[in-house]
UniProtKB/TrEMBL annotation:
Region (G-domain) residue spans: 81-229
Entry protein name: Translation initiation factor IF-2
Range within the parent protein: 12 to 381 of 590
Keyword Protein biosynthesis: yes
Location in the cell: Cytoplasm
Keywords assigned: Cytoplasm, GTP-binding, Initiation factor, Nucleotide-binding, Protein biosynthesis
Organism: Heliorestis convoluta
Similarity comment: family membership: Belongs to the TRAFAC class translation factor GTPase superfamily. Classic translation factor GTPase family. IF-2 subfamily.
Residues annotated for GTP binding in this entry: 87-94, 133-137, 187-190
Cellular component GO terms, alphabetical: cytosol
Secretion signal, residue range per the UniProt entry: none
C-alpha cells in the first residue's frame, strides 16, 4: 500500500499532525487527519524535515539492485566501452591518457578539456570510448575488491625502451583475474633506444603472444609524446568492444559505480560516478555506499552541467550526504522505496525506549519486530 494517512505519517515521522497539515496547506494540499496522501507527497513532506538525508543508510544499493527486474533484449542499446590504462611507473600511462584526450577534436574545440573528474569520454569515428582517468592498479584493485566490474578493456602500457617490468606483470595478472581483455600499447617508440620487438618477446613469457607472432594479443606501437598511432590504438579499442557486444538498458533507474569522490569546500561531497545501466537524472534520490541524497547537479568531463547521464557516461554528482568510496555501488532509490524507508526508520526509532535520534536499527531488525 503506497498511501498513508496524515495521522500515520505524523506518527512515523515524529512530527505533530497540525504541523504536517500546515505544511501540506503550504504545498497546496488541503488535508485532514485521516486523509490519505500518496507516496510522492509524503516524500516531499519528509524532505521538508530533511528526513531523506540519513534514512537510506541501511538500505544499500546492493539490496536495491537485488530486487531489480531483468532487462529485455529490445531495451538494450550499444554502450561505450570503459577502458583502464595500466602499466609500470613512468611507462607513460598519464601521458597516454592526456594525449588520447587531446585527440578528441570536439573536446579541443570546446576548450574545456582541463576538467579532471576521474574519467572522460572521447569520440572516435562517431563512437564513444570512456577512459578511467586514474591510472595505476590501486583504483582498479579497490574497485575489484568491492566487487565492481567497471572496466571492459585494459590498455597495458609498456615502454619500448624499458620493457616488461614488475608492475607490468602485476597489471597483466590483475586484468587476467578480472577477465578483462588486454590491448598492449608499446609506448615511447619515438625514442632512439626503443626496441618494440624485445617488448613483444618479453610479453610472450607472460602469456601474451602478439597477433603477428601467431597469438591473440593486439599490440600497437605508439608514442604518447608525438601522438603516433594513437588513432590505431583507439580503433583497436572499438574493435575489441564490438566483439564484446557491450549493451545496456538506458530506460530504467540508474545504477553504477563511484569512480572517485572527495569533499569539496564549496560544493560538499562530490562523487564521480559511472553509470552502468539506466539513466541518472538530476533530482534522482540515490544511495552510494553509506551515503545518500538527491542529485542536486551533475557535471560532465568538460565541466558542463548536464541533466542526464546514460550508460558508460561519467559525471560528477553533487548532493550526497557523505563522501563515498571509490568502487562503491550507487543506485537510484525510487520515491516509493525511499518513502517506505523513511516510514520504517521513523517507526523503528519511536519504538526505542530512549527515543534517541542516533539509533541504528537495520531494516532486517525492523521487519523482525513487525
Ligand atoms: P606514468 O608514470 O606511467 O604515468 O608515466 P608518465 O606519463 O608520467 O611518463 C613518464 C615519463 O615518460 C615522462 O617524462 C613523460 O614525458 C615520458 N613519456 C611518456 N610517454 C612518452 C613517449 O611516448 N615518448 C617519450 N619520448 N617520452 C614519453
Ligand atoms: Mg602517471
Amino acid at each position: 500500500d503506497e498511501n498513508v494517512t496524515v495521522a500515520e505519517l505524523s506518527q512515523a515521522m515524529g512530527i505533530p499532525v497540525n504541523e504536517l497539515i500546515k505544511k501540506l496547506m503550504h504545498l497546496g494540499v488541503m488535508a485532514t487527519i485521516n486523509q490519505e496522501i500518496d507516496a510522492d507527497t509524503a516524500m516531499v513532506l519528509a524532505a521538508e524535515w530533511d528526513i531523506s538525508v540519513d534514512v537510506t543508510k541501511s538500505f544499500t544499493a546492493e539490496e536495491l539492485l537485488a530486487e531489480d527486474a531483468e532487462d529485455i533484449e529490445e531495451d538494450m542499446i550499444i554502450r561505450p566501452p570503459v577502458v583502464t590504462v595500466m602499466g609500470h611507473v613512468d611507462h607513460g600511462k598519464t601521458s597516454l591518457l592526456d594525449s588520447i584526450r587531446h585527440t578528441d577534436v570536439i573536446a579541443s574545440e570546446a576548450g574545456g578539456i582541463t576538467q579532471h573528474i576521474g574519467a572522460y569520454q572521447v569520440e572516435v569515428q562517431g563512437k564513444k570510448i570512456t577512459f578511467l582517468d586514474t591510472p595505476g592498479h590501486e583504483a582498479f584493485t579497490a574497485m575489484r575488491a568491492r566487487g565492481a566490474k567497471v572496466t571492459d578493456i585494459a590498455i597495458l602500457v609498456v615502454a619500448a625502451d624499458d620493457g616488461v617490468m614488475p608492475q607490468t606483470i602485476e597489471a597483466i595478472n590483475h586484468a587476467k583475474a578480472a577477465e578483462v581483455p588486454i590491448i598492449v600499447a608499446i609506448n615511447k617508440i619515438d625514442k632512439p633506444d626503443a626496441t618494440p620487438d624485445r617488448v613483444k618477446q618479453e610479453l610472450t613469457e607472460h602469456g601474451l603472444v602478439v597477433e603477428e607472432w601467431g597469438g591473440e594479443t593486439i599490440a600497437v606501437p605508439v608514442s604518447a609524446k608525438t601522438g603516433q598511432n594513437l588513432d590505431q590504438l583507439l580503433e583497436m579499442v572499438l574493435l575489441v568492444a564490438e566483439v564484446q557486444d557491450l549493451k545496456a538498458n538506458p530506460n530504467r533507474t540508474a545504477h553504477g559505480t563511484v569512480i572517485e569522490a572527495k569533499l569539496d569546500k564549496g560544493r560538499g561531497p562530490v562523487a564521480t560516478v559511472l553509470v552502468a545501466r539506466g539513466t541518472l537524472n538530476v533530482g534522482d534520490a540515490i544511495t552510494a555506499g553509506t551515503s545518500s541524497g538527491k542529485v542536486r547537479a551533475m557535471i560532465d568531463d568538460r565541466g558542463r552541467r548536464v541533466k542526464k547521464a546514460g550508460p558508460s557516461m561519467p559525471v560528477e554528482v553533487l548532493g550526497l550526504s557523505d563522501v563515498p568510496h571509490a568502487g562503491d555501488t550507487f543506485a537510484v532509490v525510487d520515491d516509493e522505496k525511499l518513502f517506505k524507508q523513511v516510514i520504517a526508520e521513523r517507526m523503528a526509532k519511536r519504538r526505542e525506549e530512549d527515543h534517541r535520534r542516533t539509533s541504528k536499527v537495520s531494516l532486517d531488525d525492523l521487519f523482525k519486530q513487525i
